[in-house]
Amino acid sequence: MKRLLIAGFGDIARRAAPRLERGFEVARLSRAYGCDLDRPDTLNIEGAQALLHCAPPPDAGETDTRTANLLAALEKARILPARVVYVSTSGVYGDCHGERVDESRPLAPQTGRARRRVDAERRLTEWCGSHGAALTVLRAPGIYAADRLPLERLRAGTPVLRAEDDVYTNHIHADDLARIVARALEDDAPAGIFNSNDDSGLKMGEWFDLVADTYGLPRPPRIARAQAAGRIPPGLLSFMSESRRLDNRRLKQVFGARLRYPTVYEGLRHEHALGADQSA
User: Fold this and answer.
1) Residues 87, 203: Cα–Cα separation, whole Å
2) pTM over the 0.85 mark
């Protein structure tokens, strides 16, 4: 059986693991397993035929030192991966002023975290090119699931931007992204860069309204952008500074993805119904 190395065993990797374990012997590379991407001395990697890289970059700096440390450790491994899958972010495109964005769009990261993601993509592209490995980059937007919804912000009455100041946002259900990840590691899966989002086309305020309506919570108040500083948390306000509508045609037509939750409407209905069943 082929060996798969997973760097960063977080939510998406855990969701994908049951599918991956059908075809791979899985080795986990995370702090929970004694491997720290911030400490190269802990990265004694035997090697694997495939690599799934889900680890986020560090919280500061312009480069992704974790990816750099991972690739340096792989150079010493007995087996080098022939297939690499990296879960990146749609933030690498920066603010696109609400325009449609496909994978040919030049990268224009505006935040430190997005610049670190671009650095990781560049490092992986160069490494895979020099080692003859197939690279798949999945540029994911806002990932949602039952435990990844803005319910506490809604309960706290955190405002969102009024319609004329609002930005387009993009989503993917965590289970759909996990299925895409698992498919990307199959031998016949197409390599390349894929926007990994669903078909939703909501602005952020509409998303918050939908979550509120689904869970019986008050809709958030709307404010002007000029009033946002101090009233909207900096992390959330950062996302409200970029507007884009991701084009996922390549994901569906080239990669062949079939989403269980084509829009957030189906995904939220599922999560709410599941929660109601579990509490009954």
Assistant:
1) 24
2) yes
